[in-house]
Design a protein that fits this description.
Distance between the termini: 38 Å
Number of helices: 4
Structural class: alpha+beta
Oligomer: single chain
Mean pLDDT: 81
C-alpha cells in the first residue's frame, strides 16, 4: 500500500472510524474507501473526496494526494477544489470551536463555500431547540434578528439572536430574560444560516 492509503488506515484506527463511515462521510457508497485501499480502485482519490477526507481525518490534503508528480519532478499546480462534502461538528457545551477538536462531521447541506462548521445545541436558545444542528456561515454578515454564534478566538462567547449592535458592542439574546453584551474587539459574529433537526 502507498503512503496515502496507509495514512487513511492509520488515522481511521486512531479516531475509531470505520472505512464504511468514512466512505459515507465523503458522500460515497459504503465500500468506496475499502475498494480504493485494497483493490486500487480508483487509482487516485478525486479532489472532492480528498478534501472531505482530509477534513474528517484532520490531515493535510496533500498527504492524501501521494507522490505522483509530472515529469521534471515538479508538483502539479494547485486547483480550486469543490467544497468539502462534510463540515466539522462541535457541541455548544464544548465551549470552543477549534480545528482538530471536532466531535465528528456531518454532510454539507449545500454547495456553500463559506460554511464553517455545525454546532449541536444542548438547550433552547432563541429559535434553536435542544438537539438542533446549527450550520454556521461566514459568507454574509449577520443582521439584527439573525441567530448568531459569537466567537472570540476559538471560544464560544455567545449563542442567540443578535438584538443590538452599537459602537463597540453587540447584544446576543439567548432567551427573553437572558442577554449577553459582548465587546466587538476580537469578536467574530457568525450567522446561523440553516437549522437541521436531530
Amino acid at each position: 500500500l502507498d503512503a496515502p492509503r496507509l495514512l487513511v488506515l492509520r488515522r481511521a484506527r486512531e479516531l475509531g472510524l470505520s472505512l464504511k463511515s468514512l466512505s459515507q462521510a465523503v458522500g460515497r457508497n459504503d465500500a468506496y474507501l475499502h475498494q480504493w485501499i485494497h483493490r486500487g480502485s480508483p487509482k487516485k482519490l478525486p479532489e472532492q473526496e480528498r478534501a472531505a477526507l482530509s477534513l474528517v481525518l484532520q490531515v493535510p490534503e496533500d498527504d492524501l494526494r501521494g507522490a505522483v508528480r509530472p515529469s521534471g519532478g515538479m508538483r502539479p499546480a494547485p486547483t480550486l477544489a469543490q467544497p468539502a462534502a462534510v463540515v466539522p461538528v462541535f457541541r455548544d457545551t464544548d465551549g470552543r470551536v477549534e480545528p482538530g477538536t471536532a466531535r465528528g462531521v456531518v454532510a454539507r447541506p449545500g454547495p456553500s463555500t463559506t460554511l464553517l462548521f455545525a454546532l449541536w445545541i444542548s438547550a433552547p436558545v432563541g429559535r434553536l431547540q435542544a438537539g438542533d444542528l446549527a450550520y454556521v456561515d461566514e459568507g454574509q454578515p449577520p443582521r439584527l434578528g439573525d441567530m448568531v454564534v459569537a466567537l472570540r478566538a476559538h471560544a464560544i462567547a455567545g449563542i442567540g439572536r443578535l438584538t443590538a449592535l452599537a459602537a463597540g458592542s453587540a447584544v446576543v439574546t439567548r432567551r427573553e430574560d437572558d442577554e449577553v453584551v459582548l465587546e466587538l474587539d476580537g469578536l467574530r459574529l457568525l450567522r446561523v444560516c440553516l437549522i437541521g433537526l436531530a
